[in-house]
């Protein structure tokens, strides 16, 4: 099997995480989501709680920074003892270092979120996917795991996606939902989760060869 890293960005309620899990299970490859915090912590020596705290969350201090400029990831990580070792920027840089390590490890995998598409934009073995859906589908799926309904659920979805969008813009300087950031954009509401998995596999075979998953 070729060393293909599939990154999945997703709207809340689109089932992007579900698609990623299904894909990884079907191919028999590793799936990285929250586990990425542990990987980054072990690599950097920084307590895992810092990575969990910064996990795709918008913070009030980011909003003020966003109004001024974006702190685009540059690949630089701070050395132990540096006063900014646990800054938002350095936590992201160490997480990005972990993502690159996984891409260079030689083993195929699926990585959900964490701006992995941007981090691996120059990697020939990265397949970058964005999963989205229409309003009604997002409400339907989000309602399965949230006790909220109606306008409250709609507001909750909007807040989660706004947090992800701000996180993405802060660290990449790009717009999270811009199709130019991705190789493949899939509407899970129209396709369903299984067909999204099939679409990703089909795209990979066209790009990397029919035998890429053998």
Q: Can you describe this structure in just a few lines?
A:
The chain is 51% helix and 11% strand. It is built from 10 helices and 5 strands, in the order E-H-E-H-H-H-H-E-H-E-H-H-E-H-H. The radius of gyration is 17 Å and the shape is globular.
Overall description:
This protein has ten helices and five strands, in the order βαβααααβαβααβαα. The chain has 214 residues and is α/β, with parallel strands linked by helices. Strands 2-3-1-4-5 form a five-stranded parallel sheet, with helices on both faces.
Total number of helices: 10
Uncertain stretches? none
Quaternary structure classification:
single chain
Output the helix-strand order: EHEHHHHEHEHHEHH
Sheet with the most strands?
A: 5 strands, parallel
Mean pLDDT: 90
Radius of gyration from CA coordinates: 17 Å
Q: Judging from the principal axes of the Cα atoms, what is the shape? A: globular
Structural class: alpha/beta
Strand content: 5-15%
* Helicity level: 40-55%
Instruction: Compute the number of strand runs.
Output: 5
Span of the ends, CA to CA: 5 Å
Strand order of the largest sheet: 2-3-1-4-5
Task: Describe the SSE topology.
Layout: E1 5-10, H1 16-27, E2 30-32, H2 35-44, H3 48-53, H4 60-68, H5 88-104, E3 109-112, H6 116-119, E4 126-132, H7 135-142, H8 150-172, E5 184-187, H9 188-191, H10 193-208
Parallel strand pairs: 1-3, 1-4, 2-3, 4-5
Helix pairs in contact: 1-10, 2-5, 4-8
């Amino acid at each position: 099997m070729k060393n293909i890293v599939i990154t999945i960005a997703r709207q809340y309620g689109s089932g992007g995480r579900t698609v990623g899990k299904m894909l990884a299970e079907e191919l028999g490859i590793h799936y990285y989501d929250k586990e990425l915090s542990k990987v980054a912590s072990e690599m950097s020596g920084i307590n895992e709680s810092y990575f969990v705290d910064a996990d795709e969350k918008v913070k009030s201090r980011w909003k003020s920074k966003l109004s001024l400029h974006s702190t685009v990831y540059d690949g630089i990580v701070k050395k132990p003892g540096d006063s900014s070792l646990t800054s938002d920027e350095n936590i992201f840089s160490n997480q990005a270092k972990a993502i690159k390590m996984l891409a260079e490890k030689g083993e195929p995998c699926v990585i959900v979120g964490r701006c992995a598409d941007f981090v691996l934009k120059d990697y020939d073995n990265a397949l970058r996917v964005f999963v989205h859906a229409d309003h009604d589908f997002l409400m339907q799926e989000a309602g399965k795991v949230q006790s909220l309904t109606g306008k409250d659920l709609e507001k909750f979805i909007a807040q989660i996606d706004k947090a992800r969008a701000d996180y993405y813009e802060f660290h990449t300087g790009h717009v999270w939902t811009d199709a130019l950031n991705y190789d493949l954009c899939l509407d899970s509401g129209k396709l369903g989760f299984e067909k999204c998995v099939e679409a990703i596999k089909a795209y990979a075979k066209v790009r990397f060869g029919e035998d890429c998953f053998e």
